[in-house]
Q: What sequence folds into this?
């Protein structure tokens, strides 16, 4: 107990060093869940640290849409993290809840930590309870959670995430000619 953001960063270094030359997508998502899924040291250590961080108030501190949808950057991209950034998001909803639409210019590696037994996050391959999602480069989506509270701890190559994108359901209708 008593972990800090720095402890989480240091614990992440061997992980990002291992994945730095891999491309996010279904193949990497499968590998992450097989190699570093729940019950493995990487998953269990990072999940415990980020859960502690949210509970102690050093992670997922900025309200995006009230207390039930919060996020905060834990580390900016830096050399010791192989130029990944680390961000934590807290989402809590029984019904499916949509967060802010965004794009992953270089992909995303996302550790999903359910705080409630039925909590899950929608990834590119469906709903994920505990484990990893890995949206591919140029993918875009609404983050969605349901079934209770969860934390998403995500690693972004070069820290790149874009909210400067219009969701398909928000685009103006094109008049028929």
A:
């Amino acid at each position: 107990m008593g972990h800090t953001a720095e402890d989480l960063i240091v614990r992440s270094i061997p992980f990002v060093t291992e994945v730095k030359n891999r491309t996010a997508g279904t193949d990497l998502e499968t590998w992450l869940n097989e190699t570093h899924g729940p019950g493995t040291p990487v998953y269990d250590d990072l999940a415990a640290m980020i859960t502690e961080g949210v509970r102690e108030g050093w992670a997922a501190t900025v309200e995006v849409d009230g207390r039930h949808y919060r996020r905060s950057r834990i580390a900016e991209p830096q050399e010791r993290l192989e130029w990944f950034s680390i961000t934590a998001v807290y989402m809590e909803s029984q019904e499916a809840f949509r967060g802010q639409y965004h794009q992953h210019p270089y992909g995303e590696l996302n550790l999903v930590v359910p705080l409630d037994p039925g909590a899950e996050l929608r990834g590119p391959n469906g709903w994920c309870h505990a484990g990893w999602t890995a949206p591919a480069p140029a993918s875009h989506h609404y983050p969605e959670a349901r079934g209770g509270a969860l934390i998403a701890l995500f690693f972004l190559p070069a820290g790149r995430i874009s909210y400067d994108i219009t969701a398909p359901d928000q685009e103006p209708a094109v008049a028929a000619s």
Observations:
- The two ends are 64 Å apart (CA to CA).
- The first helix runs from residue 5 to 19.
- Residues 5-165 form a domain with the Jelly Rolls fold (CATH 2.60.120.10).
- The longest strand covers residues 84-93.
